[in-house]
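RECORD TYPE: inverse folding
INPUT: structure tokens
STRUCTURE:
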């Protein structure tokens, strides 16, 4: 609540994009902005890239936890997704 005006704003979903970049932060693909914050990252990826195209067949890919299950539908040279952080640990492990 804004103390000066007394107006209460409801939570708003933010814009989401799919971004494909290199390790040195060079952007190769910037997807269309989607207004629904409810849409999962993996669903956006599936809508933008058909698995029949095999675009990532020769690529080493590093994903975040928003893309769990991607290895079942798409083929990669190698895919690395971090494990979920254990409760008492502060380190993030990389899945080989």
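DESIGNED SEQUENCE:
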């Amino acid at each position: 609540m804004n103390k000066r005006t007394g107006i209460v704003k409801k939570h708003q979903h933010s814009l989401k994009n799919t971004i494909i970049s290199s390790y040195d932060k060079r952007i190769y693909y910037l997807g269309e902005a989607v207004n629904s914050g409810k849409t999962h990252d993996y669903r956006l990826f599936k809508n933008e890239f058909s698995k029949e195209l095999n675009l990532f067949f020769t690529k080493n890919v590093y994903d975040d936890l928003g893309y769990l299950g991607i290895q079942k539908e798409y083929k990669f040279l190698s895919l690395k997704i971090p494990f979920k952080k254990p409760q008492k640990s502060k380190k993030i492990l990389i899945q080989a």
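NOTES: Helices lie at 41-48, 70-73.
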